[in-house]
Each structure stands twice: as C-alpha cells, then as structure tokens.
Amino acid sequence: MQKLLDVLASGIHDSKNQLFLAESLVAAYENRHQADLGEVRFAIENAASRLSRSLAAYRLLRDGAQLAIVPVIIADLVDEVALAQRAHLSKQGLRLALDCPVVDAWPLDRDLIADLLNNAIQNACRYARQQIRLSARLDHEILILRVDDDGPGFAQLPPASGIGLLLAERIASLHQHQGRCGQLLLGNDSLLGGAWLELRLPT
Amino acid sequence: MIDYSKRRFLVIDDQAQARDALRAIAQTIGAFSVEFAANYQDAIYRIRNNTPDVILCDYLLGEGRSGQQLLEELRRFNLLPDESVFMMVTGEQSYEQVVSAVELVPDDYIIKPFSPDKLLLRLDRIAQRKAFFGSYYREKRRQNYAQALAILETKKQSEAGRPYRFEILRQQAEVLLASGETTQAEQAYRQILDQHAFPWAKAGIARSLHAQNRQSEARAAIDDVVRDTPHFFDAADLKAKICMAQGEHATAQAVLDEVSRKTPRNYLRKRLLAEAATLNGDSATARTMMADVISNDSMPGAIAPADRLTLARSHLQAGDKLSTEQLLLGLRDSEVQNFTLDDQASYAALLALCVPEKGRARFSGLRPALLDTALSTPARIDVIRAALGLNDPKLADKHAAQLMAGDEAKKIFGNLRALYALHGREVDFRELQKQAALQRIHHEETPPAA
C-alpha cells in the first residue's frame, strides 16, 4: 500500500513540476507583454490542486493518517485564499467579501485547510448570484472558518457525498485538540440567503 | 511593499528548467539580480561568499541531498544570517510533514505550482516578521541571551506580537536551551505543548531533559517523537545521544544506522554513528564512517583534527596499528602544535600506543599538563588507554575517577571497565567506581550553601 502511495506521489510530483514550468512560462509572457493570462494560470493551479487533492484523499482516508500542523496566522490564510480566488470570481461577475477579525495564529494544516476553503469557494461560485463571503471568527475556543453564498442553497441536506465533501469532513475531524475533534457543518440559511459551509476547529 | 529589484536572489535547483522557471517567477515580482546554484556545493559556496537576500531552494537537490539538509547545515555552521530569507520550494506534499515536525525550519515553504503574486505575498509576510524580530536577532547574534530574552518577553506582551506568539515561544525556548537554562527551556517547551503537541516541541523537552542529565525521562519523550514522526531525522540523532548517555550503545548505533541510510550525505550524522559504533565496540563501522566523512564531507572547514583522531582511534581499536601510524604521522608537526590540548593529548596517547618509540617521549612531555587539566571525554579515554599501556596508574586513575564522577559516567562505563580489564585491573576499577558513587551520595546529601 505504501509503495502504491509512493508511486502515485512521485507521479503527481512530476506533474506538478511540469505545471509549474507551464505557469512560469505564462507568467514570463505576461511580464514581457503586459498581458493578463490570469485565467490560464488559474486553470493550471486548479489542475495541480485537483491532483494534490486526489493524493490527499488517498492518504487521509486511510487509518493512521497524519496532518502537518503548523502555526498559521488566520488573517494570512484568508488573504491567501482570497488571492487565489478573487480574480477568477471577478471574471464570473462575483464579488468575494472577507471578514476576518482573528488576529492570532492557530495550529492547523495550512495547505489542506487552504485547499478546503478554495474548493468550497469554487463550489459556491457555481451557484452564487453576486457574492461569496469568506469569514473567520473565534467562538469559545473554536475557530470558525465559513463560506457563505447568495445562491439557491443546497438542493438537499445533507448533500450527496462526493470525494470533496468526504475529504473535507475527514480533514475537519483530524484536527483535534484535548480530545475534541473538528467538524464540518453545512446549511442553507446563509447570511447572504444561500448555502453555507462551516469548518469548526478546536483550539 | 518591498522593492525586490534591489534584493539579491539565489535559486537552488539541480534541474535547469526548474531554475529557469523560478527565475522567471522571481523576475515577475521585480527581482533583477537572480543567481543560480545547480548543486549543494555550489549553493554553499555562493551563500558563504556573498549571502543572498532571498534563497529559493528546491527540496530535492539530487545526489542524495535535500534542501532541508542544506538549510540545516547553513544554520548549524552559522552561514545564514536571520535577516536572509530561505524559502523552500517543493512539488512534494510530503515536505509539509517534514516542516511541521522538525526543529530547523525555513522561513516558509511554497508548493509548486504557484503564482508570482503568491510568492510576493509570502515574501512580504516574511519581511514583516523579520522586521518584527529584528532587535531580537541582533542580540541573539551577539549571544547576549539575557537581552534577547527580555526583548522576546516584551514582544510577547505586545498587541503586535499576537500573530507571532508561537514563534516567540519557540525562540524563547531555543535561546534558553542555547544559554544553558535547561530547566526554563523545558518549561518553555511545555507551554508550547499546552497549545499543540508539535513534534519539535516534544523533541525540545527531550533535549532539555538530556542536558539536565535526566536521561530516562528524556528517552521516554524522544521515543514518542521518533515513533510518531519517522521523517524527523534529528529526533533520531537525539535519541541516539540519549541512548549513549544511558550506556545503550547498541541501540544508539541501530537508530543511527537506520536513519543514516536514508540520509547518505549527512556527515554530522555519520560522525555520530562512528561515535556510537566506537562505544559499541564496532570499530569496523566506526572506521568506515570516519573514512567516508574525511573523504567526502566538503563543507568548508568541516574536517577538524578531532575527526582525524577519531579515525586513528578506530583504526587502533580494530588492531590496525599501521593505518593508525600512517594517519598520525601524516599530520604535519606545525598542524599538531596548533591542536587544542584535548587533541594534543589524544594525538600523543594514540601515537604512544601504536608507535611507542616515537610517541612515548611526546606523551611523557605532556604528562604534567595532563595530570593538572580537565580534558574532553574522548581525550581522557585516550589518555587512560595510553597510561594503562605505559604502566602509569596514577595518570589513568585520575582521569578515570573524574570520568566516573561526571555526567557521562554511564556512557563510558563499559569502555573504561574493558580497558582496565585488559590490564588486569578490574578490582582497581571497581574501587574507583565505588569511590565515585560514594562521592555522588555525599554530594547529594550536602545541602546547598545558603
């Protein structure tokens, strides 16, 4: 099993290196010609994220999976997700609003949580009318990261479970502190009138 | 916003296309001066000669080397000022597991592919953090630890310090450990563990306990870390050191042997393996490791006289007097005269044992100094071995008694006993051991002076 994981990881690693070459060529072209090929770069990064997500799913859905927990400044995390998504949303005519009053750093798996939020915003993007909101707040030692949209909401709750949702639930539950596990919650009574996704991490 | 056109970048990657890609991204964010290093040695050379402001280093460097090993050597040999930025670049998601566990970390890491904007955001944040810690870095560099700790305490209490609270706690613990305040260092690491069970903080506790000579507790702590994070290789090194302090040399050697196979170009680790093998009586492994170190460790100034003496010692232990003699007599007189007293003592002792007609006079010449001076543990053992061989029990017993009364007694007990047994002096050694134990009990019963 570990050998198969190593083979998959190595293949994905090579592919991501190739995608990086492609992105650097695009960036160099943009720089030279003052062009905006942000959507090309977005597609390249999305392809890489999907490869990484597949590998993460394979790794994390097994027993004994471990996270890579580092202290993360929450405002930085929110800014980074916004940087990855905002230009693309804007091309779709959507606005990304941010609300992050959390100043402190918290221990979490930065790359998995960022990917989870990026994926949640991408999903919201398919249904939102005008606006998506990414927020972070603290509530009784629980860090709450939330994505709201103003679309029609989930057709059913809980929604049909795909690999993205399964992985998100697993990532949430692997974040543990003093016997408490993280949770993933979904709902339809968003502040913006549509669906919401909430990641609650104990700290 | 930082003006990156004035910053010197160094891109380290063994793949030409990847270097070009990193340069293209750096140029997009405004970098003008972007140098390349194609391999590990080239990177060390460039960093030593003209420290870059920003290093973008790939995690996989080929030839059994990694960017993490480069970073560790740069930090250990003080080749990288705190003000320089070291950013690890990787397509390997497994690096996240490494960086979340280890004690020596880059300023940040970034996973390929990434946009110029993302790199810019990360570099700007690092610059903000370095500006926040600037006054602390200066005091730490001067080894003005009390002042460095005072600055950290002030920063911890400040509103601006809130995003950096983990980094402040981590730096406090590291400075306390570096300055020998091992009990306080342990407390600082425990405070971090209250927040989250970071492997590096658990290792910090083990390191603090090891320094306090609380070896059983240190061992329990490090065993957990090595079991849970097998990719945290420095933890394996620490476990081996603790095992050696406990006198469990075979376990130490086995731990180092396993991790050394995974890091074939880590020569600090090979030195440690040679030490464990020597203590374990495996002179063949010790010889192989030290010969590899001396032939291949190309870090500038890395091969110290102590390394050559270690190899000579392992030759001698293996019964190969010819190689010992060749090695020792191959050292120039001018070089030997510049040795520290520890190294001179080892040199004279080893020479006296393998070529008595050439070494005895030198050893006798040093004898007054050897009787009066506290030496390092390897030098003491060499002196004891030579003194027993040259029938000088007074000199041998003096150093043996001091070793048995010291913190490393368990570590060297087996070796000392074997040396005394070789000369038919087991009874005398038992007496030395008894005296050391009585002395320790007496010391523990004496209340500290008011």
Summarize, please.
The complex is a heterodimer of chains A (203) and B (450). By secondary structure, chain A is an alpha+beta fold. Chain A is built from 5 helices and 9 strands; from the N terminus they run ααβαββαββαββββ.
CATH class of the largest domain in chain A: Alpha Beta
The tally of structural domains of chain A comes to: 2
Which band does the percent of strand residues of chain A land in? 15-25%
Count of β-strands of chain A: 9
Care to count the β-strands of chain B? 7
The low-confidence parts of chain A are: none
Q: Which H/E pattern describes the elements of chain A?
A: HHEHEEHEEHEEEE
> What would the average pLDDT of chain A be, to the nearest integer?
93
Structural class of chain A: alpha+beta
Profile the largest sheet of chain B.
5 strands, parallel
Given the structure, what is the number of helices of chain A? 5
Topology of helices and strands:
The complex is a heterodimer of chains A (203) and B (450).
Chain A: H1 2-33, H2 38-60, E1 70-73, H3 74-91, E2 95-99, E3 105-108, H4 110-127, E4 131-139, E5 142-149, H5 163-174, E6 176-177, E7 180-181, E8 183-187, E9 196-202
Parallel strand pairs in A: 2-4
Antiparallel strand pairs in A: 1-3, 4-5, 5-9, 6-7, 8-9
Helix pairs in contact in A: 1-2, 2-5, 3-4
Chain B: E1 8-12, H1 16-28, E2 33-37, H2 40-49, E3 54-58, E4 60-62, E5 65-66, H3 67-76, E6 85-90, H4 94-101, E7 108-111, H5 116-132, H6 134-141, H7 145-157, H8 165-178, H9 182-195, H10 199-211, H11 215-228, H12 233-245, H13 249-262, H14 267-279, H15 283-296, H16 305-317, H17 321-329, H18 333-337, H19 341-354, H20 356-372, H21 377-389, H22 393-405, H23 409-422, H24 426-445
Parallel strand pairs in B: 1-2, 1-3, 3-6, 6-7
Antiparallel strand pairs in B: 4-5
Helix pairs in contact in B: 6-7, 7-8, 8-9, 8-10, 9-10, 10-11, 10-12, 11-12, 12-13, 12-14, 13-14, 14-15, 14-16, 15-16, 16-17, 16-19, 17-19, 19-20, 19-21, 21-22, 22-23, 22-24, 23-24
